[in-house]
Amino acid sequence: MTDEKVVYFQDIDALAFYKAQATPDFWDHHWQIEDLRNSIISCTYDSTFIPAVKSHLPTGSTVLEGGCGLGQLVHALQCQGYRAIGVDFAASTVQRINDEVPELDVRIGDVRALELKDGELDGYVSAGVIEHFWEG
Question: Under DSSP, is residue 25 helix (H, G, I), strand (E, B) or coil?
């Protein structure tokens, strides 16, 4: 059985094709890269998110990346002087990150139900997450 799905979005006159649902197992398989540590620590800057964070938050602020994947942006934020936290629901990937780059704060979690205290974060960044919630 396939997870293929075709959806027509009438409001923007667009057709979308989804081949597979983005489950934790899908991402754990997708992110099987050989040199995970180097892939993460080689990322010290991001031209999209770092300027946006810097324009709104001072260095030292706590920033969470929801759906952090391999954790490259978490590392880049840390390199730029932020207290960075990453959350992803792909448990095997998060475990590999914690094993290979223990200096990062990357946690298993669901962006829709974060286990954080009120006021714990100064900022939140996320890309490539909400479109994977097929239920809306």
Answer: helix
Alpha-carbon separation of residue 73 from 7, 54, 99, 105 (angstroms): 31, 14, 18, 12
Residues 6+ apart with CB under 8 A from 47: none
Does the structure show a pLDDT above 50 at 1?
no
Per-residue model confidence (pLDDT) at position 74: 98
pLDDT digits (tens, 9 = 90+) for 93-128: 999 999 999 999 999 999 999 989 999 999 999 987
Q: Please state, in angstroms and rounded to a whole number, the distance separating the CA atoms of residues 91 and 12.
A: 35
pTM of the model: 0.83
User: Residue 13 burial (CB < 10 Å; 0-12/13-18/19+)?
Assistant: exposed
Contact 85, 74 (CB under 8 A): yes
Report the residue count for the chain: 136
Q: Does the domain formed by 22-132 have CATH 1.10.760.10?
A: no
